Amino acid sequence: MDDLSGLLSSWPLDPSTPRVRVVQGADGRHKVQVRLDLGVLQMEMDGRPDGLRPGGRESLLDLLREDPAPEPLAPERLEALRQEAGLYQQRATALMMAGFPGLAARDCRRNLELIDVVRERAARPEDRAAFEQLRLGLVVTRTRAEASAALQVKDHRGALAALDAGLAAVRDAYTMIGQRNRFEASAEVAILRSMRDMLVPRLPSSQRAELEERLRAAIVSENYELAAILRNELRQMKE
């Protein structure tokens, strides 16, 4: 077996040194590497992160898509899908750190599709619930990645649209689990709104406060048509 000391010493753990990098592998394909405390984690940039091709397909999710006679997902198959989703999520985080938000968003969308498949095909409610718990975190990471990808090409409107769509998706996710009342105070909403606030100029405090107060009241009263109008007013004034 090869000693990794040379590799580790050439990439020291240093606050001034990035912990994520992209390199070209011996096979000519690019890999994303993450420097860990006791080693280096390497993942493929495309396809399944560990490079495996289950059943000759890119992933277990692809096998599910091609199943001509889908059956309820057994616990052992769900565990394999959960482990695979963890690989894609780990890569999405690394790709964001490495400056590839578009690819990170791709991996998040893939995992969100898996959650939808499990919701339809898992036999046990507890299995569906276990996967559903991953949705909010994935929506936030996907939204941040999509907004960052838009900003990379100076598309500020696209970034704002991604953030608005992400906030709507977070609301839908809370509604799906019967916790819509948690939306306004949630950490996920705070993260996305903070990012959005950084992209828009501030309105005069009195004007902005009045519109936002009216918007909060519309949401509390579930007057979503009025809320949509008020959001558009705020968006137009900010832009």
Radius of gyration: 21 Å
Strand content: 5-15%
Please tell me the overall pLDDT.
87
Shape: globular
Q: How much helical structure, as a percent, in the residues? A: 55-70%
Low-confidence stretches: none
Beta-strand segment tally: 3
Order of adjacent strands in the largest pleated sheet: 1-2-3
How far from one another are the termini? Answer: 59 Å
- Order of helix and strand elements from N to C terminus: HEEEHHHHHHHHH
* Sheet of most strands: 3 strands, antiparallel
How many H/I helices?
Answer: 10
**Quaternary structure of the protein:** single chain
* Class based on secondary structure composition and strand pairing: mainly alpha
Characterise this structure.
This protein has 239 residues and is mainly alpha-helical. It has a domain at 202-239. It contains 10 helices and 3 strands, in the order H-E-E-E-H-H-H-H-H-H-H-H-H. It has helices spanning 5-10, 60-65, 75-98, 101-121, 125-132, 135-152, 156-176, 187-197, 205-220, 224-238; strands at residues 20-24, 30-36, 39-44. It has a 3-stranded antiparallel sheet, covered by helices on one side. 25% of the residues are buried.
